[in-house]
Amino acid sequence: MRHRVAGRHLGRETSHRLALYRNLVTDLLRYERITTTEAKAKEIRPMAERIITLGRKGGVHNRRQAGRFVYDSRVVRKVFDDIGPRMSTRPGGYLRITGLEPRKGDGARMATIELVDYVQAPPTPRPQRVTAAPSAAPAASASAPAVATPAITDETAADEDVTTAEGAPAESEALAIDTDIVVEDNPVEPAPIDEVTAEIEEEAGDALEAEGGAQTDTEEEKGASDA
User: Alpha-carbon distance 158 to 132, whole Å?
Assistant: First the structure.
């Protein structure tokens, strides 16, 4: 039974619990930030701060004392060469505990424990969206032979300018000139209205006279038949 024994047992025996603490402290000093349950973070905080205080003091004896608790010798070297000098102006309080949301599995309270001067790495930039390349041209158009276009040089352009200036006029100008000549040689003038009216009346009179003569011939033929 517990009988007023201080500290958290965490459901483990003494040897198992001590190994758990040493592993957590070693990882905390290696990575300078870990995420665990809030109870474990509160238990390992004084242990990790004691190791950092040994690193601040320096010396062979303190290095051996830290080596008795920390599993990795490279982490001990980091504490005395890097973390200790960084915390030389702080009399204590080297770590910070920040609460997180409960764990989804069993609802345990989670927390992050880290060094107070821990600088979080910048977030990884998101990759840019890759758009599809434009579709290739049809095979027929790709296989069609290319038509060579004659290159226009300065000499060719000069020759064209001379021909245009000295040669025959353009087609539109020639048509305009021919039209003007035809209009001037054969002018078409509209006939007067009186003359047109007289011609129409004469044609109508001739038609009436022709009809009257036809009727007279028909009556004479009828009289002869009756006789």
Answer: 48
Same domain, 24 and 109: yes
69 closest CA partner among 39, 38, 29: 29
Indicate the number of domains in the chain.
2
Residues 25 and 75 occupy one common structural domain: yes
Q: How far apart are CA 12 and CA 21, in angstroms?
A: 11
Q: What is the CATH number of the domain that holds 95?
A: 3.90.1030.10
Q: What is the pTM of this model?
A: 0.53
- pLDDT tens, position by position, 24-73: 999 999 999 999 999 999 999 999 999 999 999 999 999 999 999 999 99
CA distance 120 to 108: 25
Burial of 33 (0-12, 13-18, 19+ CB in 10 A): middle
The answer on 165 and 86 residing in a single domain is no
- What tokens appear for 81 in the block? 């060469």
Domain limits for position 192: 157-226
